[in-house]
Amino acid sequence: MKFSIVTTCKNRLSHLKESLPAMVSQPDCEVIVVDFTCSEGTADFVRTHYPQARVVVVEGRDYFSNWEARNIGAAAATGEWLVFVDADIILSAGCAAWLADNVKPGNLIKFPPGLQLERLRSRVSAISLNNLQGFLVVERSAFDRAGGYDELLKGWGAGGDVDIQNALGFLNIGKSFLPEDVVERIIEHGDDLRFAHTGGSFRRSFIQNLLYRELKRFLFPILGVPIALETRKKIFVAAVKAATMAKDRLPSARAEVILSRRPVEMRRRLGHPNSEIQISLRAVVDHLEVPQAAPANPGAPSQQPPPKPGVPTA
Question: CA dihedral defined by 40, 43, 45, 49, rounded to 10 degrees?
């Protein structure tokens, strides 16, 4: 089995009913459906109507983590290549055939970045406003080397797809792009479904996950990929704290994580018996405040436009 299509469902059975037929009809592919504590009877529906698909049931989750669900699906897959597809994506009939002709070892395949996809999108295919960054095709061996998706990432917009691409990039995994016509259409839906089961505010979730990903990205070449879980937990705690401090729309969010701490050599001879050396890392997201318009004053010099939101720096 060369390709394993992995899709996940948390109360999106209506979407899966539309998208699953196109997945199971792809030649030479196995399909893994992860029922992530879905209350709509997803597992029973798939087993009854699409017995050729494999169902993995995850119980006891009152939240939705696409990254945890995808890791569970990947663990059940047997293909050389993993094809991660969301339940609102309807594949074209020729998707697997295109992949069979174009996948290359040491390479991942995805859609172009969102802005580039907007420029390239044709009126015929009408891919929609979904930028499809979660549609990822990756060699199983590379996925395992990267440690899979990071399950500490939480909330909608957490960027797990960006995070794993960062990790794969530091493993020298190349990147190529999917054409529009591997997707027939996207099932349009509102933000109510996107935010369901993710918890917390989007702003806080986005900031904490952005800081966390950026700190990790800086540490990949230093600590290796994957980064040890205990270290990731420290980074995540620092990112959550920073996002919490920024909840009142402070002008910036700053996350600092201590990577190591040890006593200074010959500290008693120095006369400082409690001295220690500490290595830490800080990431900052600047200009989080919405600039307030200055009061009209015809005699005042013209104002420069406010700076654009900054990029986290480590």
Answer: 160
Percentage of the chain beyond pLDDT 90 is 56
Determine the Cα–Cα distance for residues 23 and 54; give it in Å rounded to an integer.
12
Give the whole-angstrom CA distance, residue 286 versus residue 246: 11
- The Cα 313–Cα 199 span in angstroms is 27
Which of 170, 165, 138 has the alpha carbon at shortest distance from 74? 138
Q: Which two tokens stand for residue 248?
A: 């009142």
The Cα–Cα gap between 174 and 153 comes to 24
Sign of CA dihedral 243, 245, 248, 252: negative
Spatial distance between the Cα atoms of 154 and 151, rounded to a whole number of angstroms: 7
Residue type, 102: N
The token pair that represents 93 in the structure block: 């009939």
Residue 195's pLDDT is 62
175 vs 193, more confident = 175
Q: What does the alpha-carbon distance between residue 104 and residue 289 come to, in Å, rounded to a whole number?
A: 45
Q: Which pairing describes strands 174-177 and 107-110: parallel, antiparallel, or unpaired?
A: parallel
pTM score above 0.90 = no
Report helix angle 66-76 to 160-170, nearest 10: 60
β partners of residue 187:
none
